[in-house]
Structures are given as structure tokens and as C-alpha cells.
Amino acid sequence: MTRVGVVTFPGTLDDRDAARAVRLAGAEPVSLWHADADLHGVDAVVLPGGFSYGDYLRAGAISRFAPVMGEIVEAAGKGLPVLGICNGFQVLTEAHLLPGSMIKNDHLHFVCREQVLAVENVDTAWTRDYTAGQHITVPLKNQDGQYVADDATLDELEGEGRVVFRYVGWNPNGSRRNIAGISNAAGNVVGLMPHPEHAVEAGFGPDGANGPRTGTDGLGFFTSVLHSLVG
Amino acid sequence: MGRVVVDVMPKPEILDPQGKAVAGALPRLGFGQFASVRQGKRFELEVDGPVTEEILAAARAAGEQVLSNPVIEDVVAVYEDAVAQDAQA
């Protein structure tokens, strides 16, 4: 069975939900501890959301130096699929696996809502089960979610098709060019602010086409990586 | 005992939402003379011995590599804290 690691840092909140999403997609979740410089042979890694190290210094800044991150950076360079969600996305930018950074939401408020995203790149390890341009609805909850990068970096991301997700309808945090998520050049490393792991099981997700709480649009992330790995 | 101060500020081209909020609050308390505010961070790094050139160089390197994120922030000043030195003298 495909094994997907889920990293827990001090202050991580969504590791249980991420592990549950992995299980519902048909893989085996493997807990990875921040202080353990060992990936235990997993086939992919999820960095979940939360407030690792209390967001001290900058969101994700201390986590970057955790022993497990050295292993993840090295394995990501060799093609290991890595997904960073929310604080996990911030960790990936601080670790220089993805360009840019996140600053405080432009309106200064914590935001928690069901957010529509457009999936613009379906060639990454984490999005191949979607169709290009597909709109999905997943929860969004953050304080430091405003994606920023210089114009040259943004142009490069757009030119190479590395803007994987864009906010639809409303830009909830002032992110440059409505960017909700990006990938590295190889497409194995993906980071986004919204939370697909909270929209994987009817009864517990956002409102969907079949009624309240029926939305499971996030499950495709986790089935995508399975299909990427088994080829 | 010596102390080095590292000042980090958001890059000029990056909107500083916190500074903007502070700027909005100041007039409400009667401070109408300030047109804008930018909010940064001050780090105080203490060493057991004197602050040498090597210590300052290390503080500059730590400022660039850890204390700031060059995508959104600049290290604007790295200097020995004279007040701390006087207190020790």
C-alpha cells in the first residue's frame, strides 16, 4: 500500500485531518515527527496546517530548521511528492522549495470560509485527478495568507504554468494575482493556503451539490498523488 | 558582555498591513501628525565577551539567513548596542 507521511511540528493543528484524508483516498498515513530526521520510507509527504512554533519569528520560519525538513528538502529534490497546506505552504516557502512568501491578510482579520478555487494546472503530482479550469470548494482559514513575490517571480510562475490554484469570486487575503497555490518546476512540490483535507468526506465538508456538508472536492489531492505514484 | 542589535523592516514595496493599522489608530488618540507607519522587528543578540568584528559579521549573516526573509524583509541595521556597553562599564 502507498504510504504517505504526515509531519507534526509543535503547534501543528491539522495533522489528524490530513492523515484521515490520506486514509480515505486509499493510502496508509504515516506520522512523521519534526525532530526525527527520518522519512521512514514514505512515498509522499504532507505538511499540514496550524501554527508551528506559534508562528514565532515568521510563520513557518522555525519549522524550516526542524531535522525532518532536511530530509524532506533532499527527497523533494529527487522527486518525492510534497504537499504543503496553509502553514505547511509557509514552511515550504521558508525552506525555499517554493518561491515567494506569505504576509498578513490585507484586511488584517483572520478569515474562515468555504472558498472556491480554480484548478489551473492538472499536471502536478497532487492535481492530476482534476480537470483543467475545474472549480472546487474547500475551507480556507488563515491570518497570514497574503501571497507575495516580486513581479519577475510572478511572471515566471505564470509563464511556466506553476500557478496551480487561483481564488475565484473573492480574493480573501490580498494575494498577488489571486494566487492560492503554486508548484515547483518539476510539479512534485505543491503548496496552497486553503485546506483540501477538510473536504474529503460527506457529512464533514463544505456545502456541496448534493446538500449541506456534502462537499468532497479536496479528496482529489490525495487520490491524485496515489495515481501519480502507481503511475 | 556585549549586545548586538539587528533591525529588520518589511521591504518598501511590500504593503505593511500592521503598520497601516497602527497609522489608522494614531489619529484617534490625537496623534494626527504622522502620515504613515511601518512596523518592523528589533532583535537583541547578547554575547558573553566583547562585540568584535567577527561577532558583527555573524550577526549580519544570521540577520540575512534566519532573522529576516529576503522575499519580504530587509535587514536595515546591525550595530553594537552602546547602552548595554555603558551599563557594563
From TrEMBL, chain A:
Pathway: Purine metabolism; IMP biosynthesis via de novo pathway; 5-amino-1-(5-phospho-D-ribosyl)imidazole from N(2)-formyl-N(1)-(5-phospho-D-ribosyl)glycinamide: step 1/2. The keyword Hydrolase applies. One of its GO terms (molecular function) is glutaminase activity. Its EC number is 6.3.5.3, 3.5.1.2. The active site is at 86 (nucleophile), 195, 197. Part of the FGAM synthase complex composed of 1 PurL, 1 PurQ and 2 PurS subunits. This is Phosphoribosylformylglycinamidine synthase subunit PurQ. It comes from Cellulomonas rhizosphaerae.
From TrEMBL, chain B:
One of its GO terms (cellular component) is cytoplasm. It is an enzyme of class 6 (ligase). It is found in: Cytoplasm. It holds the Pfam family PurS. GO terms for biological process: 'de novo' IMP biosynthetic process. It catalyses: N(2)-formyl-N(1)-(5-phospho-beta-D-ribosyl)glycinamide + L-glutamine + ATP + H2O = 2-formamido-N(1)-(5-O-phospho-beta-D-ribosyl)acetamidine + L-glutamate + ADP + phosphate + H(+). Its EC number is 6.3.5.3. One of its GO terms (molecular function) is ATP binding. Keywords: ATP-binding, Cytoplasm, Ligase, Nucleotide-binding, Purine biosynthesis. The keyword Cell membrane does not apply. It comes from the Bacteria. The keyword Ligase applies. Pathway: Purine metabolism; IMP biosynthesis via de novo pathway; 5-amino-1-(5-phospho-D-ribosyl)imidazole from N(2)-formyl-N(1)-(5-phospho-D-ribosyl)glycinamide: step 1/2. NCBIfam families: phosphoribosylformylglycinamidine synthase subunit PurS, PRK05974.1. Part of the phosphoribosylformylglycinamidine synthase complex involved in the purines biosynthetic pathway. Catalyzes the ATP-dependent conversion of formylglycinamide ribonucleotide (FGAR) and glutamine to yield formylglycinamidine ribonucleotide (FGAM) and glutamate. The FGAM synthase complex is composed of three subunits. PurQ produces an ammonia molecule by converting glutamine to glutamate. PurL transfers the ammonia molecule to FGAR to form FGAM in an ATP-dependent manner. Part of the FGAM synthase complex composed of 1 PurL, 1 PurQ and 2 PurS subunits. Belongs to the PurS family. This is Phosphoribosylformylglycinamidine synthase subunit PurS. It comes from Cellulomonas rhizosphaerae. The lineage of its organism: Bacteria, Bacillati, Actinomycetota, Actinomycetes, Micrococcales. The gene is purS.
